[in-house]
Amino acid sequence: MVLEAPGPTRGRLSNEDLAPATAAQATWRTWDIFCLWMTSAHSLGSYGFAVGMLALGLTGWQTMVALFTGVLVLWVGSNLIGVAGQRVGVPFPVFARATFGVFGANIPALLRGLVAIFWYGIQTYLASTAVIVLLLRLDPGLRSWTEPTFLGLHALGWAAFLSLWTVQLLILNYGMEVVRKASDVAGPVVWIGMIALALWMLNSVSWSIDFGARAGAPLSGGATALAFTGVAFLMVAFMAGPLVNYADFARFAPSRRAILRGNALGIPLNETAFVVISIVISLAALKKYGSAMADPVELVADIDSDAVVVVAAVLFAIATVGINVVLNFVSPSYDISNVAPKYISFRTGGIITAVLSVAVLPWKIWGNEAAIVYFLGGVGALMGPVFGILVVDYYVLRRGHTNIRDLYSESTDGAYQYTRGVNPAALISLGVAGAVAVGIALVPRTQSLTALSWPVGALLGGALMYLLSRAPYRSSRGGPS
């Protein structure tokens, strides 16, 4: 990791937020990295995703094994990106400059930022539903606020949404150190709610569930194998965005060891445990209600005890706020700042992100399957190629070397200027691999292969990057990091 910034802190390509991390900022140790991944996994969306996989026709235990397989792939990817990010010590959009060019890096950065902005709004909305459950349980008279609507959201919904929106903006306003502390709280907190919910659900079904149960129709042998592969890679695709911009956090780790240990605790250990408890809750719901309810807030709302409902709703709201800040607020803040560092700081990027997250009316997107699948799914499919291109360029072509000063250089002689600040090889690789990945993800006739969009995109993007870069490769592109 770079302990003192060797490059400029002001100028067309830099500001204090985008500069290399310093020794004083190296505060994200093993526990913090562990909590980062814990926070990333512990969301209402993650629970809904895990439960939704049951609908593909696999049994409970098959779904858990498939998700665990995906977790292992995610673990390997996090080590590759995390170690590189910690060593170079710069946020994702600056890290990407070595691969895509000092100006070309804006393309993958803004693609990642765009997805994060939409999910930031959606997660804020989902957290607000937990607050609404809490408020209605405390004061049933507030139901009168749930009838009128403005832009598709009732008055109580607006009040809850904007309250959480403001809290998250305040957290980010105090910088990455407060983000670290929020992550340390949010990750463990949700375990309290999930364990309590699991115990209540198991008690309601006499402590008996069937791991061989399934929510979808039974599958043949070939269909089971295809569904198993699909669930595994959908798990990776679900976390593809945070995986790509992991350098935003890894840059603040004091050592490679902290990254590897934090990743090991936070991904194969913690995410597997979260998958197991999510499936246990959903199988209990399947037995009790006849369907695997994808929203734990609905389950909480059905609990008779007011005290339990209040505690659970508060925990879910706190956890989702922490998750949202880590997963969907930090990335676009850096990505937007990278467009014009001289004028847009990390905090200003955060304000722009927050405003855009309201403007997209996330509650309408969440209720529109076509918007989720075709827009967010399509843009999200591009994260596979970005990952493959970054990994091949850093580990294979540059062999771990980065000229950090040139990441901020406006000189035409800079190592990462390429063609007017854009690397044609990287953009061609992203364009071709991205088109294939999006096609696999969205073309109706390939729906049975949708889950393969991430691995195909990553492998094709990496292969094209290698082939297009190998011949004209210049040693001046890299230097000691």
UniProtKB/TrEMBL annotation:
Residues that span the membrane, as ranges: 36-58, 65-84, 118-138, 150-173, 185-202, 222-244, 265-287, 307-331, 343-366, 372-397, 425-443, 449-468
Membrane topology of this protein: Multi-pass membrane protein
GO molecular function per UniProt: nucleobase transmembrane transporter activity
Species assigned in the record: Mycobacteroides immunogenum
Localization, UniProt: Membrane
InterPro entries the record matches: Pur-cyt_permease, Uracil/uridine/allantoin_perm
Sorted UniProt keywords: Membrane, Transmembrane, Transmembrane helix
One Gene Ontology cellular component annotation held by this UniProt entry: plasma membrane
Keyword Nucleotidyltransferase: no
Lineage: superkingdom: Bacteria
Family note: Belongs to the purine-cytosine permease (2.A.39) family.
Name the record gives this protein: Nitrate reductase
